[in-house]
């Protein structure tokens, strides 16, 4: 989900609800404590320089159980953040405190915002010698795994 999609979704809502990938809802008294611009400039293990930029929301909950973020208020916060995020229609990444800070993608199901799992991945699998998983059975994949001194990432 990107910023413009979120703004559009907020205009038709009566309440803002976020749901975890497990199906569990964030408590209704959550706060949006930050809306920010996160830029990542890095080199993958194959030596390719990459850049990634996202709009980042930080969700948090406190003991103020009477707090409710209205859709209009959230939209106002997003509009204020335009000066930080710029005019680019950025994808959204959400941070939410669990055992440690969890990073999530975001979708909208027509009623609720759904936090989606994010996964790590090797962006240079060809440089690491990682085989295409569809071509191998599990025992072959285990044999193809990285070993110390094997030249893998």
Description:
The protein is an alpha/beta fold and 153 residues long. Helices cover 22% and strands 31% of the residues. It has helices spanning 3-11, 71-80, 82-85, 125-128, 138-143, and strands at residues 18-19, 30-43, 49-61, 92-97, 101-108, 113-117. The chain has a six-stranded mixed beta sheet. A hairpin with a 4-residue loop joins β5 (101-108) and β6 (113-117). It starts with a helix and ends in a 10-residue tail after the last helix.
**Residues in helix, %:** 10-25%
**Beta-strand percentage range:** 25-35%
Separation, N- and C-terminal Cα atoms: 31 Å
What class, by secondary structure content? alpha/beta
Number of helices: 5
Strand arrangement, major sheet = 1-6-5-4-3-2
Dominant shape: globular
* Low-pLDDT residue intervals, each spanning 5 or more residues: none
Radius of gyration: 20 Å
Largest sheet: 6 strands, mixed
How would you sum up this structure in a few lines?
The protein is α/β, with parallel strands linked by helices. 22% of the residues lie in helices and 31% in strands.
List the helices and strands and how they pair.
Blueprint: H1 3-11, E1 18-19, E2 30-43, E3 49-61, H2 71-80, H3 82-85, E4 92-97, E5 101-108, E6 113-117, H4 125-128, H5 138-143
Helix pairs in contact: 1-2
Give descriptors for this structure:
alpha/beta, single chain
């Amino acid at each position: 989900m990107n910023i413009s999609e979120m703004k559009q979704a907020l205009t038709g809502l009566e309440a803002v609800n976020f749901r975890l990938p497990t199906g569990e809802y964030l408590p209704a008294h959550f706060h949006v404590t930050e809306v920010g611009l996160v830029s990542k400039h890095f080199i993958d293990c194959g030596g390719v320089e990459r850049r990634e930029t996202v709009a980042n929301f930080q969700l948090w909950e406190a003991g103020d159980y009477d707090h409710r973020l209205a859709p209009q208020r959230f939209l106002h916060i997003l509009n204020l953040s335009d000066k930080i995020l710029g005019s680019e229609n950025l994808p959204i990444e959400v941070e939410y405190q669990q055992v440690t800070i969890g990073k999530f993608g975001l979708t909208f199901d027509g009623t609720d915002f759904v936090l989606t799992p994010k996964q790590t991945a090797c962006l240079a699998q060809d440089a690491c010698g990682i085989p295409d998983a569809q071509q191998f059975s599990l025992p072959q994949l285990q044999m193809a795994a990285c070993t110390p001194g094997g030249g893998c990432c």
